[in-house]
Write a structure and sequence with these properties.
2 domains; Rossmann fold; six-stranded parallel beta sheet; about 375 residues; alpha/beta
């Protein structure tokens, strides 16, 4: 039984390796006021996230969540949604929170049948078509992790008062440069890494196309590591690219690694490269590792500021990415400057308490108007 002033929250989440989304959820569940907001997390498959939530005494259950928009799953998704309604009702849930846009329809279904507010987390770029497709106008509150996501939602017609910008956070006890100091090296090798599930969304193949354009004298000084669990079909495409681009032997794929090893891995890099964003950017910055971010537009970011806290490209043209890689590989003082500035910025702006506090305030506003 919950106390009189307790308002249980049902979270809907993907399971799988403990990377960006999962790590952010764990930060939140470990630091929220559970007396005020008792939590139950429904994950769509068994896996490391479920195990870790249970280990930290968070109520977590496996509930299938079939793809909502796929016609072959029409019957199963309806049954899945009804099971989630039952779960929320049995636990007296007062809010339902979809941890990413792919669980949004399930959140709406539950919210409408129980008369409770829904929250949808936006963790990546969406165009107007995506915003309409996922019917985000139906969400009672939207949490967006980037200013540009907020702007896109407003431009698509989502009322600004329903949107809250809440940055992803970094665990400075885990991602600690004091615990995992950067190794001193004089071998001339530049260690470049990409971190995250190796899937089409992470755009690994596009990075390889850029690396293949580098002068041979730079390629000979590179050591590339791409860390993450692999989508097998995409891995086969990457393997073909490695042969076609003559990069076989340059790139290592160690697979997914335990969360506890990630700080050491990031500290060992001379440069983190990302073409898809993600909270690993901030984790690398916390370790003093310089970051190269590549996007398809040149809109400014709040925390990765070009030539200040990171090196930021507003184009993903392979030739331009290659130029940036060459510059950063050759300029160690630039890398050191960006690493130090990024580390200072993250530690001042992206702590866990601020993220948790802002999310709890979102819940309180919803309850006040429920």
């Amino acid at each position: 039984m919950h106390g009189e002033n307790a308002y249980p929250v049902l979270h809907l989440s993907r399971c799988g390796p403990i990377y960006g989304l999962a790590r952010q959820l764990l930060y939140f569940t470990n630091h929220i006021d559970r007396q005020r907001f008792p939590l139950i997390v429904a994950v769509d498959e068994p896996g490391p996230l479920k195990d870790e939530l249970i280990r930290t005494n968070v109520g977590c259950v496996f509930r299938p969540m079939s793809p909502w928009r796929s016609f072959p799953y029409l019957v199963s998704r309806h049954l899945d949604a009804r099971r989630l309604v039952k779960l929320a009702r049995e636990n007296g849930c007062r809010i339902v929170h979809a941890q990413d846009v792919w669980k949004a329809e399930y959140a709406y279904f539950i919210a409408e049948r129980l008369g409770i507010p829904s929250v949808v987390h936006i963790r990546g770029p969406l165009d107007r078509r995506d915003i309409v497709k996922h019917r985000l106008i139906r969400a009672d509150a939207i949490i967006a992790i980037g200013r540009r996501y907020v702007d896109d939602l407003i431009a698509a017609g989502i009322p600004a008062e329903r949107i809250t910008l809440i940055d992803d956070a970094v665990d400075f006890d885990l991602f600690s440069a004091e615990k995992y100091p950067r190794p001193a090296r004089a071998d001339g090798i530049v260690r470049i890494g990409m971190v995250g599930r190796i899937s089409r969304e992470k755009r690994v193949r596009e990075l390889l196309e850029a690396v293949a354009l580098l002068p041979q004298e730079i390629v000979q000084r590179l050591d590339m590591t791409i860390i993450g669990a692999t989508d097998l079909d995409y891995q086969r495409e990457i393997e073909s690219d490695l042969d076609r681009l003559r990069l076989r032997g340059l790139v290592r794929f160690p697979g997914g690694i335990p969360a506890a090893q990630m700080p050491g891995q990031l500290a060992n890099l001379d440069l983190l490269v990302t073409l898809a964003g993600g909270s690993v950017i901030y984790e690398a910055m916390a370790m003093g590792t310089p970051v190269l971010t590549v996007s398809r537009d040149s809109r400014p970011r709040q925390h990765t500021r070009h030539d200040q806290t990171a090196w930021c490209l507003g184009t993903d043209q392979p030739q331009e990415v290659a130029k940036a890689l060459a510059l950063l590989a050759d300029d160690e003082p630039l890398r050191r400057r960006l690493g130090a500035a990024g580390q200072d910025w993250v530690r001042r702006h992206l702590g866990i308490p601020a993220m948790v506090r802002a999310t709890q305030e979102t819940y309180e506003r919803l309850l006040k108007h429920a």
